[in-house]
Amino acid sequence: MRQELVDIITFLEATPEAVRFLREGMDAEELKARADDGTFSFVEHACHLRDLEREGYGARIEKILSEELPPLPDFDGTGVARERRYNEQLFDESMAQFTEARTRNASVLKDISDEQLNRRGVLDGFGEITLEGLVALMREHDLTHREELRVLREQILVRRAVER
Predict the structure, then answer these.
(1) 3-163 — its CATH code?
(2) Of 28, 44, 61, 116, most Cβ neighbours within 10 A?
(3) Where are the domains of the chain?
């Protein structure tokens, strides 16, 4: 396995801990507070990461490895968040479930061959993609959420300071 892929998998495995680190010191109400622009709260991020990992990435990895050029459905994160009422769920439970799903997917990815990395599927809204390309998308998605959570943490800390 190429070092670049090893590094991406290592990054993916570190995301749950990075999210937990960013939530340090937040109380239950702060975990449900949305960003200034109205985007996801900490709880909603955790639920989104969990569901996308299981129903999006996990399912896509499995399909690419087991089928020839399978269709890979889109995952409507905003719609699912609303439908499943993410902000009413528990952060720690959602993070435990995300961590479990991410560990499972990372384990699968560590054991794949270069030939399997080149297997393809057709991702809704994107087009044809290799498994290696899907792994790169996972990393980009994680980067986005880590940055959004970093900004949200700063906003919550500012709100806390203003309220005192």
Answers:
(1) 1.20.120.450
(2) 44
(3) 3-163
